[in-house]
Amino acid sequence: MRTQGVIDRYRKYLPVSDKTPVITLGEGSTPLVHANRLGPAIGFPKLNLYCKLEGLNPTGSFKDRGMTMAVSKAVEEGTKAVICASTGNTSASAAAYATKAGLACYVLLPAGKVALGKLSQALMYGAKVICLDGNFDVALDMVRELGADGKITIVNSINPYRLEGQKSAGFEVVEQLGKAPDYLCIPVGNAGNISAYWRGFKQYKELGIATSAPKMHGFEAAGSAAIVHDRIFPNPETLATAIRIGNPASWKEAVKAAADSGGKIDEVTDDEIVAAYQLLARTEGIFCEPSSAASVAGLIKHLQSGAINEDATVVCVLTGNGLKDPDMPLKLCQPDLTPVAADVDKLRHQLQIN
Ligand SMILES: *Cc1c(COP(=O)(O)O)cnc(C)c1O
Fold first, then answer.
1. Closest Cα to residue 20, out of 28, 30, 11, 29?
2. Which structural domains are found in the chain, ordered by start?
3. Residue range 237-266, pLDDT digits in tens
4. Which atom of ligand 1 is nearest to the CA of 292?
5. Mean pLDDT of 127-139
6. CA 88 to ligand 1 center in whole angstroms
7. How many other C-beta atoms lie within 10 A of the C-beta of residue 145?
């Protein structure tokens, strides 16, 4: 059987019709892994933790769930090209889905910090990539102007179909767990994904498919924590480039998601993000992007403060694949890659195998 994507699986909950062409790369249906080693490692042995591995989507991030919708609707509406501003993953996803649909793709890349893997993807899928002298927020302003006449479809998360596709992840969590978790921990950049998950959980509860909905705990990076401090950050700073955003597009909807669910949007420092990033890899065998680890950094912070109960069932959303950002592990681990002689006895000694 053909692998079904998000539109085929959740057609009745999405704004599509029989006339909508389905542009899919087989996104969604990502693993929900029981992370049973991490809790004990941080002193919370009763924690019931799961990780949603969104890095296993076709282009390596959750953006594919929204992009299948945005690009399918763009084709239905007859546009010939898509455009986005992106710190990386949106451009990788837009470029792939646009190519699959036979559309052109334009990418405005904010100057500076962009993870190498993401740029490589956009280039390989054949997008027209332009690096802009300005940060993400400036790039998004430019995209709004370039797309204003409707000839080119904007596929940033201000595109209404993106969040509709992304809410499918909330559906999947409920199906995989057999119920809604007590808490959902998730990184917050433009705040689209936390809003989308909340739509999904709310809809499944309204439909009676779930009896409850989780408290939504979103985490911004401290250097770009606009929602937490209720002010725009004109120069957002964090090594977590996917959430380096100073004026989130879905600000209001995210604040409402946190409030309506009884959750909270908080901030985590770069040091906390890096610690969580390493902890996930070393305790669970899960290699995510630094930005993704903000969810686990936030979980740890909220376990320690008591904002999350120590015996709760928690799902952490790991938004992107660790291979996107190959520089970071080398910086952290600083391996000695000088070749060693091929001598078994010496190797046994050096590796301390006894
Ligand atoms: C886009 C992205 C985020 C942030 O999601 P928002 O919807 O902008 O809040 C987090 N992590 C990764 C890996 C991303 O690509």
1. 11
2. 6-60+162-331 (3.40.50.1100), 63-158 (3.40.50.1100)
3. 999 999 999 999 999 999 999 999 999 999
4. 11
5. 89
6. 10
7. 8
